Amino acid sequence: MAWRYAFSISGVLIPISLLYTYYRYKFGYFERRGIPHIKADINIFLKQPTKDLLQSAYNTFRNSTPIAGVFLSTTPVLVILDLELVKRVLVDDFASFSDRLNLENSSDLLHATDNKQWQAIRRKLTPCFWSAKMNLMFANVCKAAENFLDNSEEFLKSVEVDFKPLCTRYAANALMRCVFGLELDNADESTMTLHLRIKDLLKRECEARLSANDNNMLPGVCCIKRTHAQTVSAESFSVELETLLFAAVEERSEGSPQHSDLIQILINLLAAEQSDSAVVNRRECVFQAIHLVTQSLSTLLSGFAHSANILMHCLNELARNDEVQRALRQNITSVLQSYAQDFSYEAMGHMHYLDQVVAEALRKHPVAEALSRLSLHDYHIPGTALTIERNTCVLVPVQAIHYDPNIYPVPAQFDPSRFDAATVMARHTCAYLPFDDGPRNCMGKRLSKMLIKVALVKLLHVRRLKEIARVERESVNEENFRMDTNEFRIKLQSI
């Protein structure tokens, strides 16, 4: 009988010892390579805020080493702490870190892992977001903002306003107009049903992305995916939308007024590429343009949803900071007076304090906690004995940098003066990373900022925002305010 007991005990102890040996070896990854790191503990297997882990690494090692190691779940990840090294990874030595992490089941070409695939789609879409093209889309954004203002009218006499559904509607409406050129206002009976179906699809996806922003207690692997600020659309959604869009765009006759939406701009660019041919196949250009847009739909949807999210934070910060709101309204009023009350793309470009307010909102409430890159080969860090090995995930801790008191004194304070020209020039170029940096930065950043600015101008020109006493927020740490506030309730007043 003794041998049976021995056999049973060994059957339990051997697997446990093997498992212990495996994890001990795995968690010794950084120690074997001489890299300073946050040691893994039992909490590594539990859901924990990755921002806290990155912040801990940043605070502990930022003055002693350019990189530090952390474990997201059981995956070893390097956190870049030195701003010069951040610049090397994102810009100077981009060829060594050109890939992002693979997002499972992602059909979004703009976030494809393969650099060649990404370059091909980006080369076609980038001209659509140049400043001249933004000028073309400006009227569409203004129309969406006017609807946003009209929708807020019903709350003028309310005790409080929840801006979350208003901003979600604004994002969906702007997406319809700017990207797909679809309007509900001027749609006839034959197209109204089609346009409503598309708007319903877009609004549902925007709401899903805004809801995803509220969930910050993520396991390590999921949080790696979240650093791209992506929520992957279902394949069926893309197919359905592509079919509906093709039907809608095909209704545009040759003699109809030229549209200024993203799809039309892309159709024109694709047609220009075929200008050497005897005949330009318009139908083929339409098909290619719609296919390119729907293949990049996850990025576009997330971009508009995040713009709505930043707009909510802007409104919230302005309601809490009367002096800033007063200075911004004065800036808007003075510029509009100089342009005879004509709000144009050029006029918006001269609202410099508006630029500072939006920039500070993006600093204090960054869309992504971190930027991720994948090393394509062994990379020796200049001036050190440290090496980033091939296929290692590296993270740039955006939120930790934006809240570094050595870079931004009193970081929890909302202070747009941080972004006046002289102060910006004195800072490191990688001390501010709301839209990534380098060749893989966000190409839609002009459109995103335009969405926020236009809505602010339209609202603040006729309304005043007033903060409602915070009842359930008293225990919220100021630095974590962005992460814990899910509702934005502000009182609207007439000027």
From TrEMBL:
UniProt main location, coarse: endoplasmic reticulum
List the GO molecular function terms. heme binding; iron ion binding; monooxygenase activity; oxidoreductase activity, acting on paired donors, with incorporation or reduction of molecular oxygen
Q: Which domain of life is it from?
A: Eukaryota
Localization of this protein: Endoplasmic reticulum membrane; Microsome membrane
What single Pfam family name could you report for this chain, choosing any that match? p450
- Residue ranges spanning the membrane: these are 6-23
Q: How does it sit in the membrane?
A: Peripheral membrane protein
Keyword list, A-Z: Endoplasmic reticulum, Heme, Iron, Membrane, Metal-binding, Microsome, Monooxygenase, Oxidoreductase, Transmembrane, Transmembrane helix
List the GO cellular component terms: endoplasmic reticulum membrane
Q: Name the needed cofactors.
A: heme
Q: Name the residues that bind heme.
A: C442
Signal peptide positions are none
Function of the molecule: May be involved in the metabolism of insect hormones and in the breakdown of synthetic insecticides.
| Stated family | Belongs to the cytochrome P450 family.
What protein name applies here? Putative cytochrome P450 6a14
